[in-house]
Design goal:
By secondary structure, the protein is α+β, with helices and mostly antiparallel strands. It is built from six helices and nine strands; from the N terminus they run ββααβαββαββααββ. Helix 2 (67-99) packs parallel to helix 6 and helix 3 runs parallel beside helix 4. Bound molecules: adenosine-5'-diphosphate. Adenosine-5'-diphosphate binds at residues 156, 160-161, 164, 188, 190-191, 193, 201, 206-209, 213, 218-224, 247.
Length: 270
């Protein structure tokens, strides 16, 4: 339902007019609610690791004559502080990509470098689960964009594919050109995402399974960062998924975006 605010103003002295202003406040209300939710979510997400750290510090003090317990608690403190650092870093990243319009650091980004860097970020995690990272397709393409942001976006997709897949599966990163778009797909043979959650996973802090996400160090912010980066580049990110079978995330980036009209962008293929 729409919400209107009506106010009356008397026109300048001498005229016999009363101005009635009718303002549609629906969108302003929605933006307010989103902002309030975001602050509540951030506070909640920060409280969890901070609370755990404080309890662990108490436990260390109580265990002064048990060196093994102290080492165990210290290890958990390390995990909680890494989680806190990760959350703060992702909040900073999100705020950067949200506020970077138009993009400040646009240059030609070769997709073979982009894919290699994004895959490198996840190689260790993939190896520890014996997941094969396979790269293929037409990587000679070049898109205009912010190199660091694009590595962050694709890196987040590959990282999720590895995190939400069982051991000894395969993650495929494929690049192809379609019309004036570069299409990068990241496919996994992982858990998949239930149909009812598919439209919500790009929202800030939305997780299908909060416990699993936290266990893998997830913050629930990764996909909303990817969505903002894609939009900032004039592209988009979409998902297809089947529970128990796997997911495919598709990042579409224009060869020539409005942020790069002065740059002449060509693919290096003839
Ligand atoms: P997180 O930090 O929790 O991974 P994201 O914003 O990156 O947050 O993803 C949101 C949620 O979407 C995740 O918590 C997970 O439930 C789901 N998800 C994302 N990528 C995948 C994937 N490749 N396979 C299955 N589920 C996924």
């Amino acid at each position: 339902a729409h919400e209107f605010e009506v106010s009356a103003r008397v026109a300048p002295l001498g005229s016999r007019l009363v101005l009635l202003l009718v303002e549609d406040r629906t969108e302003a209300r929605r933006v307010d609610a989103v902002r309030r939710d975001f602050v509540a979510n951030v506070s909640h997400e920060l409280k969890t690791p901070v609370g755990a750290l404080s309890l662990l510090a108490e436990a260390v003090m109580d265990a002064s004559d048990d060196p093994e317990a102290i080492i165990r608690f210290a290890g958990r403190m390390q995990i909680e502080s890494a989680r806190l650092t990760n959350l703060v870093q992702e909040l900073i990243d999100l705020s950067r990509v949200q506020n970077d319009h138009p993009l400040h650091h646009v240059g030609p980004v070769p997709l073979d470098d982009l894919v290699a860097e994004a895959a490198d970020r996840c190689r260790q995690a993939a190896e520890s689960k014996q997941i094969t990272l396979a790269i293929g397709g037409d990587r000679e393409l070049i898109v205009p964009g912010d190199h660091n942001q694009l590595v962050m976006a694709l890196g987040n997709l590959v990282e999720n594919a590895v995190n939400y897949s069982p051991a000894r599966t395969r993650v495929d990163i494929e690049v192809r050109a379609e019309a004036r778009m570069a299409v990068i797909t990241v496919s996994d043979q992982g858990l998949g995402i239930p149909q009812r959650d598919l439209d919500r996973i790009f929202e800030r802090f939305y997780r299908v399974d909060p416990a699993r996400s936290r266990a893998t160090g997830g913050t629930g912010l990764g996909l909303s960062i990817v969505k903002h980066i894609a939009a900032g580049h004039g592209g988009e990110v979409t998902v297809r998924s089947l529970e128990g079978v796997g997911s495919t995330f598709t990042l579409v980036l224009p060869f020539k975006s409005s942020t790069s009209q002065s740059m002449s962008m060509t693919s290096s293929t003839p």
